[in-house]
Amino acid sequence: MSPHLDAGVVHELALKEGVCVRPLLHRVTDRETGEHTVVVMPCRSVRESRCPNCAEAARRLRMQQCSEGWHLDHEPEQADEQEPSDQDDPADHADESAPEQDEQATRRTRSTRRRDDLGELPLKPAEPRTIGAVFEGKNGRTYRPSMFVTLTLRSYGRISPGRGVPTDPTRYDYRTAALDALHFTKLLDRWIQNLRRCAGFKVQYFGAIEAQRRLAAHFHVALRGAIPRSTLRAVTRATYAQVWWPPMDDTVYTDRVPVWDGVDYTDPDTQVPLTTWDEAMRRLDEDADARPAHTLAFGRQVDIKGLLGGTPDADRTVRYLAKYLTKSVAETYTQPEVFDAAYEAHIDRLHNEVRYLPCSPACANWLRFGVQPKDPGPGLCPGQCSSPAHDRENLGIGGRRIQVSRGWSGKTLSDHRADRSAVVRQVLEAAGYNPHEADRMSTETLSEDGSPKYHWQTVHLPPEKASEAIIQSVFERRRWRNEYERAKASVLCNAPPVEVNSATS
Predict the structure, then answer these.
(1) Predicted confidence (pLDDT) per residue in 41-58, tens digit
(2) Maximum Cα–Cα distance for the chain, whole Å?
(3) Which of 186, 344, 358, 423 is deepest in the core (most CB within 10 A)?
(4) What is the dihedral angle through the alpha carbons of 238, 329, 414, 404, rounded to the nearest 10 degrees?
(5) How far apart, in whole angstroms, are the C-alpha atoms of residue 175 and residue 351?
(6) What ranges do the domains of the chain cover?
(7) What is the model's pLDDT at position 56?
(8) Which residues does 330 contact at the CB level (< 8 Å), separation at least 6?
(9) Strand locations in 311-449, DSSP E?
(10) Which residue(s) pair with 223 in the sheet?
């Protein structure tokens, strides 16, 4: 790289050319020949603050996934195995819809009696389908509408209109807001389960968890098929989720920290072991008057829309649903060029609650309440749990920002990515180009003995080498783009004329 080409110029060039601004370098070894090759790969972050180009590519991929499954008129083929998110960003892992179980292996039996203060669920016999019903309109036209729903959480105090900050922070219930954020996905899982019992078919969904301006989580969800609005509202009113954990009302340790003695965490003064997780849960089971540590429910505001596939409204809604996927929860409404002290203080107060409340049975924050986390080990410290849910940028929503049902499109996220690549490959092959580099040195390529032919090893880059890798990516992208444009022009010149009957311009 030229000495006068500094990192800032390279960064701007990468943004302009649409390549990754923090590429990963891999050394690939051919096990048969021993030959080494250096390969530059994008970081594939889903956060705009880390890599705008990779984040935008991830957002468009999610939009494609949403569009393909929303208005299907046939049952999708089920994928053999659904994968966790293959984005290497912790804020988007485990994006499939298996209900969360904190203790799935040792699940305790609780009473299934519903609370008396909530409405009853309008149960309906289920049909073995995932696609929506067809309705006949005028002149014999048929319609297969689907739904778009927005769910919000309850109020925690009065909010200044348009600002998103409490009018009186001392009366705002930050603790409940933090607990609702930490366990929001449990409430969503319960809502989907209830909806499927009440809608009469196995409803499929694609949803995104986002933050309102007041920083409370809300859920935009595309539902396949038409569901009566009365049913959606009744299910939302009747849905709640309970967290059966040891009490979290009284903090036992604040300044003092329990000590690890090699087997248990003990009181720093008396050296008496703290209550174990299993013992705390046993006491909870034996207490006939025990109450859940926290109960979640939705707020009154429910926005419901019916949409038809292929319409401008449906396309616009897909873009709206994916609008904030590239931003973290805390930065959704913040503007780097404008500093709002009141809003930053609001974020800090909510983060202070999220940071020290338990996120799971294994969370280190249980030590603050005199309980040892499940399966404890050395090095645990309250306020330093490794879960991204406690980070200031996430404010309790540390995972599963995207929630997709297994029968949505019948494809994994990798399948959708492969579909986009296949379009380019078909154009290149039709024009006589050999896109051999698409599968170059794949980890799935095997030697004659059945072992992987190539070994991939990550190489850590100093800043100057990272700039060189970006420049290499820019040249490679330009070359690919030129080949693709020439291939398209060649195909168009040789293609026979066809009649165009597109429904959209």
Answers:
(1) 888 999 999 999 999 999
(2) 87
(3) 358
(4) 10
(5) 10
(6) 7-46+415-491, 71-101+115-245+292-349+396-410, 250-290+360-387
(7) 94
(8) 211, 215, 347, 351, 392, 393, 394, 395
(9) 402-404
(10) 147, 205
Which residues on adjacent β-strands are paired with residue 218?
152, 210
Q: Is 258 helix (H, G, I), strand (E, B) or coil?
A: coil
Contacts 24+ apart (CB under 8 A), 127-130: 127/200, 127/201, 128/201, 128/202, 129/75, 129/201, 129/202, 130/75, 130/76, 130/201, 130/202, 130/203, 130/204, 130/224, 130/225, 130/407
Digit-coded pLDDT (tens) for 57-107 = 999 999 999 999 999 988 987 654 444 333 333 333 333 333 334 444 445
Write out pLDDT tens, residues 182-230: 999 999 999 999 999 999 999 999 999 999 999 999 999 999 999 999 9
- Whether 215 and 97 have beta carbons less than 8 Å apart is answered as no
355-387 tens-digit pLDDT: 999 999 999 999 999 999 999 999 999 999 999
Q: How far apart are CA 352 and CA 337, in angstroms?
A: 25
12, 469 Cβ separation under 8 angstroms: no
Backbone angles phi, psi at 198, to 5 degrees: -100, -20
Q: What pLDDT, on a 0 to 100 scale, did the predictor assign at position 490? A: 75
Please identify which residue in the block is written with the tokens 């891999």. Answer: 26
Distance CA 369, CA 254 (A): 9
Q: Report the run of H or E that residue 136 belongs to, with start and end.
A: strand 135-136
pLDDT beyond 80 at 410: yes
Structure tokens of 53? 């180009």
Contact 234, 198 (CB under 8 A): yes
Cβ atoms of 380 and 25 within 8 Å: the answer is no
Measured in degrees and rounded to the nearest 5, phi and psi for residue 208 equal -130, 130
CB distance 268 to 255 below 8 Å: no
pLDDT for res 497? 46
Residue located via tokens 């949403």: 66
For residues 396 and 178, is the Cβ–Cβ distance under 8 A?
yes
* DSSP label at residue 24: E
Q: Which of 141, 224, 165, 181 is nearest to 343 (CA)?
A: 165
